[in-house]
Amino acid sequence: MKVGVSTLILSHRSITEATKILVDLGFRIVELFCDSPTFHPDRLRDEEIDLLLDWKETYGLTYYLHAPIEGLNPADSHPRVTSETLRLYQRSVEISQRLSCSGVVFHPGHLTRPDASREEGIRNSIRLIQSVLETGEGKGGLFLIENIGMKDATLFRRVPDFSDFIHFFSSEQVKGLIDVGHAALQGFDLIETAHCLGERLVHLHLHDNSGTEDGHLPLGRGVVKIKEFLDALKKRQWKGTGIIEIFGEEDFRRGLKESVQFLDFVSTGR
Description:
Number of domains: 1
Radius of gyration: 17 Å
CATH superfamily: Divalent-metal-dependent TIM barrel enzymes
Distance between the termini: 17 Å
Order of helices and strands: EHEHEHEHEHEHHEHEH
Largest sheet: 8 strands, parallel, barrel
Strand order of the largest sheet: 1-2-3-4-5-6-7-8
Number of strands: 8
CATH class: Alpha Beta
Structural class: alpha/beta
């Protein structure tokens, strides 16, 4: 498994400052979290693009882009929400193409009401993502669909629901992303989820939590069965990418160090 890090941990910094800090810490795979006051599709400047591209070449970086999430919901049926989600998802693909990113992370959406229909939400999400795919096919790298949502709000009650969603898309540009923290909150068995996704699984979001809140804690601080899951992937010689996606804290370097040490222990046993 190749290991990278998300700029989510430094979302209060500019995208160029955050990226340079992470590169200076030794990371060569960076997922650019595109939903912060300092980095958003509607506020990205050409000079930031140029600098990120310069570092990509200078340091041999691999970029991924995480599309915006705030106020967006592909599963929603409200025309305003649908229109804005489609616009910003398409814009994310354009930015990903400009940065030569290896892929774009998309949330499939969530239920907004207790009485909302999961089937309708899934249909809405598929329709919107298909629209993004039609305008961006072959552009922006892979489309990485992430499992999200607490049990009551998620589109996917069971692991096969998520797997079926991914496999619905015939395009090989669409792949699966397992967020291990979200999976724990959804009640998903991580190993079963990887098995169901099969070859479509190419990307992970790695963070821990208490089992009740989406805390995005450093690896090893919570109750998520991350080691067992990564051990299983190691046995099947999985070659995908794992992104450390933890929230920032006063000493963000400590959280990153703990997470890297955790992954080193899983990898080497030491």
